[in-house]
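Quick question: what would this complex look like in 3D?
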Amino acid sequence: MRPTFLAFHTASRALAASQANMDVTGNNIANVNTKGYTRQRVDLSSISSGGYTQKYAVPTADVGLGVDVSRISQIRDPFLDARYRDQASENGKFETILAGLTDLENIFDEISTEGLLHEISKFVNSLQSLAQTPSAGDIAQVVRTAAQKVTQIMNVYAKQINQVRSQQVFDLSQVVINNDFNTKIKNIADLNAQIRQEQTYGNVPNELLDKRNLLIDELAELANIKVTSHPEKISEDLTVERLTISLYDPATGASIGLVDGELYNTLHVKDDGERISIQIATSFGPHGGADITNHFTSGSIKGYIDLINGHGINEFRGVPYYRNSMDILASNFARVLNELNTIDPDNPKPLFSSADGGPITAENIRISQQWLDDPAFITTTIYDANAGDNILRMISAIDSEIVFYRDATDDTSEVMFRGSLDEFLAGLMGEVALDVELYRNYADTSVNVLSNLFNAREAISGVNLDEEGINLMAFQKSYNAAARYFTALDEAVDTIINRMGIVGR
Amino acid sequence: MRITNKMITTQYTRSLNRLAAELNRLNNQVSSGRKFAKASENTSAAVKAFQLRKDMSRIEGYRENIAHAKSTLTNAESALMHIEELMRTATEKIITGLNDTQSREERAIIATELRSLQAQLLQTLNSTASDSYYFGGTNTETKPFEVIDGKLYYNGYDLDLPLPASTPEENEAKLKELASDTLYIDIGLSVKFDPATGEIDEGTVFGYSIAGINVVGSGTTTVEGEEVSNNIYNLLGALAAEFESENYSHAKADALFGHLKDASQGIMRTITEIGAKTSYLDFMAERLEDQDFNLQERQVDVEGIDPAEAIINFEAQKFAYNAALQMGARIIQPSIFDFMR
């Protein structure tokens, strides 16, 4: 026998289901532009009649008992999340490097300005004038001024390279400590705790999950992270997910835990002036205080590390590479001209010296005190005459092949380059420009891939207003239908109670 | 594939941004007339451009050197013309003096005239252009010619006599050195030096100063059993002395005059030499000008844009940008909500 009011519950559940669907649709529409929002869906299931007729062993046709709103779930693809984050990591690295290299390029680039190449050319031309009239004091002074400009531009380049470095170090500290990385790690761990609590109560904390996913996406831009989740058993019939994040290097398989549930590690940036390293500051694992610089393989943190530490030998050409190259240029330039200016090796007559008496670098190169005191300190001839042959030697030396030693004072040290000054400098500019070009291509490509992945993810998780509009209309209709069904049932009961059995009355 | 609103807007923003960036790049091209504003936009062209700029700057230096050398040579040439004229006047006077009908007083007057010509000669040999002496070889600072006790000294050396405390061989070597002493400039022949001695390779440079010793002559010759100077100044002095002499000998004066004519060949030789040098410089200057022009053309090729092409590209890009804007306004707006009753 069918209970009289059985279908009333079916009708009320149908109303509730439509209501829930309309609520979720509304929520989706409201969040159409919310960053990180994942489209939600009401999971419905039909209710079977539960076998109550079997009690009496009278087989009857089973009618289902309507619909059940089992939960509100998110539509998300974890595989795409992982791919998106890997790509975001790559992208973060390329964009950071590109920005840093562009700063470096701006120092060297003299396509639209006048830089070191221009000053060297002017120096050569002033030497040409001196060769015309070697005894002219005023021209000797012009030569000295031109040389001074060359040294000053070298100083400026060195200073600007150092500025780029400090800027990158500052940015890296900002990214790691002051806001991004450590804060995000901590927030994720906090969210882990909250989500665990909600899940323990049996709730589905969709909004918290969105928040966490968004934070993980942002974290992926900073470093090469790997996200895994393990089931954690709360009780016999309740298991929740425990999320861990680690710094993972796919090449070596090494991994360093960053977040484990509500536990987290924070990082610390250490700069010794030459090299920068990243260490674990506070820790839950065995890595406290460990230097994990080499564990970064992508993400913008890796970009900063490359820019700040890359000395260019078998690795990225970063600030140290360009600083060393400028030092090598300055010291060898000084070496060649100082040697030419000296006739008697026992009585050196240096044209250039360092400001602090130490080895000559791009930062400290300057005109020697003797030359400052007397413009005619420059040796015009090696003979006992008034000729300008030595000036021609200097011009020829600047334009012909110079051996650039790693240490200009030691001609047994490694040879860095053979060629003229101009070739060295143009080569340096070419290198930084090529690197910029390369990383711009990398960044363009990775942005494209990233945007494809974004679209793929959006295609699954994003809110489509047309869809929601159709759903809204559909659920409105089904709500109306359920309400009409209710009325129909009500009329049926009314018929039985009030009108049945009054034949002929 | 589901297409969501966010996808459309993100994609649209991105392509608009790309179009705008390209538009900006083309706009910069048109307004600056340059193909690229940074080396990284076209690295190979940028490296080429640096090379071209360097070459052009060097050529500028060479051309300045040539201009300087040419002006020095022209000055020297006109001074030499003047000397030549002095010598012609001297010749006339001497011929007059050699005439046996001349009285002793008249010869004395000619001697005085010759001495005045001598003074003019000395002054011309010491002429300067912008404070540098151009007959001093590498010595441009002090007067190259001096007269001490009526004898001509060149850069401190007596042109007739052996240098003190030196053998005749050494003396000769010194005179030779003085004769070849010259200032070199770089005119773009890629200067080379002997790696062993450090000596300049003269074929790779241009020597433009004139050693006055070659103009006036040096050393002595035996004429009529007497040691006489080879230089024109001293010879003029000797002739003047002979004309003034109480025991004037026509034969001796005539011999001196003959020797003077030989000695003054140096002037013409130097003038010819200067002419050859000047025409070489003219040739080099022309070549450098050609090179400079070629380099400028190549620079325009490498760095410059074709304005017509750039403007057409710019307009095409503007059209694409406008089209994208128009499309966007239509795509983004509608959804089913716009049509729900």
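Answer marked as accepted. Chain A touches chain B through 62 residues (CB under 8 Å).
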